[in-house]
Design brief:
Elements: H1 6-10, H2 26-34, E1 39-40, E2 45-53, E3 56-63, H3 77-87, H4 91-102, E4 106-113, E5 119-124, H5 126-133, H6 145-150, H7 154-166, E6 172-175, E7 178-185, E8 189-196, H8 203-208, H9 210-223, H10 227-238, E9 242-248, E10 254-260, H11 262-276
Parallel strand pairs: 3-4, 8-9
Antiparallel strand pairs: 1-2, 2-3, 4-5, 6-7, 7-8, 9-10
Helix pairs in contact: 4-5, 9-11, 10-11
């Protein structure tokens, strides 16, 4: 269920742009932004550089290899453009994008690891920036995810990133008769709410088999082959984030719940690491 923290990385771009004033040159605006760097993205990494490179404005994001699997990183340009659309809603921010579009300056986002041994990039063309700049959104129609994530503690940042990522696929049928309908944070960690179709799943049997359900979920975590998911589980363990799986009737009454503790997550991910050594 847990995705990687890529959404906080995709949406970090909004943190870099404050008010542009009226019409400042691209180089001046880039210089202003560069002066604020590096900018922490919490456990995911940091924004290290922004440079005006003639035909492109290049943004470099250094990812933490313990959190993000660079070899498996796949940047979705549609998602990146959607992030621009949700974040750059102010008139001043749109002016910068419009200036880049008018001067045919593309936006290049580079992702690299700490050793700069692996680098991936995605280039947003000037005409794409222009389309974003001409969108009309109000602040109430946007989702300011990045500023919220960046201002949080590492623990809260991990939790928020997981929630924002996993909500994208809701509702999601995880098994016949079991549909994941909500993901949110609690004081203990992240909570997944699954609605039970009682015509397919016996709720009394589900409650009676709660210990078995716990073991099955833990086994799934332990045996996952997704390196990024495993790293995220490990971080949850290290930052004291519990995973709670709540099963409810269609109208919301709780049938049973399973809690995977931070200690269990650490043990599960360590076992997996040893098994792959």
């Amino acid at each position: 269920m847990i995705q990687c923290l890529r959404f906080s990385v995709l949406l970090c771009l909004a943190l870099l742009f404050g008010a542009c004033g009226k019409r400042a040159t691209i180089s001046q605006e880039v210089a202003k932004i560069q002066a604020t760097l590096p900018l922490s993205l919490g456990p995911a990494g940091s924004v290290t550089q922004m440079a005006d490179e003639d035909s492109v404005v290049a943004l470099t994001i250094m990812l933490n290899s313990e959190v993000m699997d660079m070899s498996a990183l796949a940047v979705d340009r549609t998602a990146l453009l959607e992030a621009f659309g949700r974040q750059f809603y102010s008139t001043d921010a749109r002016k910068l994008l419009q200036a880049m579009a008018d001067e045919q300056v593309d936006f290049l986002v580079r992702y690299t690891d700490a050793r700069q041994q692996i680098t991936k990039s995605i280039r947003l063309r000037a005409e794409e920036l222009k389309a974003v700049a001409t969108q009309r959104l109000s602040a109430g129609e946007t989702t300011a995810i990045a500023p919220a994530v960046a201002s949080l503690s590492p623990r809260a940042s991990i939790m928020q990133s997981i929630v924002e990522s996993d909500r994208k696929s809701l509702p999601h049928e995880v098994n016949p008769g079991l549909t994941l309908v909500a993901v949110d944070t609690t004081s203990a960690g992240v909570r997944y709410t699954t609605q039970v179709d009682t015509t397919q799943v016996n709720p009394h049997l589900l409650k009676a088999r709660q210990p078995m359900l716990h073991d099955n979920i833990l086994a799934t975590i332990r045996n996952t082959k997704d390196a990024t998911a495993r790293q995220t589980y490990r971080l949850c363990g290290e930052y004291n984030v519990s995973l709670t799986f709540v099963y409810t009737f269609p109208k919301g009454k709780i049938i049973t719940q399973v809690v995977i503790s931070p200690k269990e997550l650490l043990v599960a991910t360590k076992n997996k690491q040893h098994a792959s050594d």
